[in-house]
Specification:
It contains nine helices and 14 strands. It has 298 residues and is an alpha/beta fold. The protein has two domains: 155 residues, 3-Layer(aba) Sandwich (Rossmann fold); 71 residues, no CATH class. It is globular, with a radius of gyration of 22 Å.
């Protein structure tokens, strides 16, 4: 479906955003994870045809993004929700979607109304469709953004950092919406929030400094942290610096630390089942310091 081969992007000043990316993305929901500055947004913008690569090849359903004619075909088959979506604050959600639908060429009024009603229902906004967008919360605006991206029934939906800055309840609602959306088209979710991927994606890639560090199923990444995750309880002192502290929790008996590494027996460490976040953190630690442990290939 999407084939990325030896893709590079170099910005002015010899800033290398992508360094020979190779990926194949099939149906379902695909997670693209990495820290800020990893190259995720650059990759998303190249896929949508908004940015030209320096070298390499990208094909979407057989269409090459390097050809102008194919770029138009690609734009017709995908929906895109960027990190910052420009909304018209004085329009209602229904008015905004109607405006975007017309821009996308949905000229039949009845068909347009029917699709807008369906997408408002999918996004859980039917009861709020008449309110002006400036009165919407951040999460509601993101849901409007997904609805507008789905206008025209795209074959691929690309979303860039959709849950950043949202409260926990709205993040769950948005993740569920994306999971539901993946039943009708391929969804590429670009995020630095590992939990978003762990809840919904069956396939993922980890990017860092423009390179793919891992490509595969979440469970294989989780397995790389097995026997490396521990629970330690102290009187308050932080465990030795050779460990990565993933989380802390205050107890009536002291402080509980969830750590990655090989702790000293003096702490009475208890092994813990790893999560996807643990696997991701372990992978990034190995990238920064290969001598800190053994890393299996993804």
């Amino acid at each position: 479906m999407i084939v990325i081969d030896a893709l590079t992007k170099i910005y002015r000043g010899n800033i290398r955003a992508l360094r020979g990316i190779d990926l194949k993305i099939d149906n379902g929901m695909f997670g693209l994870v990495g820290p800020n500055g990893a190259g995720k947004t650059t990759l998303m913008r190249i896929l949508t045809g908004l940015l030209r690569p320096t070298s390499g090849r990208v094909e979407v359903f057989g269409c090459d993004v390097s050809r102008a004619r194919d770029r138009q075909a690609i734009k017709a088959m995908l929906g895109y929700l960027p990190q910052e979506l420009g909304l018209y604050p004085d329009l209602s959600a229904r008015e905004f979607l109607d405006y975007v639908a017309i821009l996308k060429g949905l000229t039949d009024r009845r068909a347009r109304r029917r699709q807008i009603d369906e997408l408002l229902d999918l996004a859980g906004l039917s009861d709020q469709a008449g309110r002006r967008l400036k009165t919407y919360s951040g999460g509601m605006k993101r849901r409007v953004g997904i609805a507008q991206a789905l206008l025209g029934s795209p074959r691929i939906l690309i979303v860039d950092e959709p849950t950043a800055g949202l409260d926990p309840e709205e993040r769950v609602r948005l993740r569920n919406l994306l999971a539901e959306t993946s039943r009708r088209c391929t969804v590429i979710l670009s995020t630095h929030i590992v939990e978003d991927v762990s809840q919904s994606c069956t396939d993922l890639a980890v990017l860092n400094e423009g390179r793919v560090l891992y490509r595969g199923e979440p469970r294989s990444l989780i397995a790389q942290a097995r026997d490396k995750v521990w629970r330690i309880v102290t009187g308050g002192e932080k465990p030795d610096t050779g460990l990565v502290v993933v989380s802390t929790r205050q107890l009536d008996t002291g402080v509980e630390y969830r750590v990655l590494g090989n702790p000293s027996g003096q702490y009475g460490p208890i092994p813990v089942e790893p999560s996807l976040e643990d696997g991701y953190i372990w992978l990034m630690r190995q990238e920064r310091n290969p001598a800190s442990g053994t890393l299996e290939s993804g």
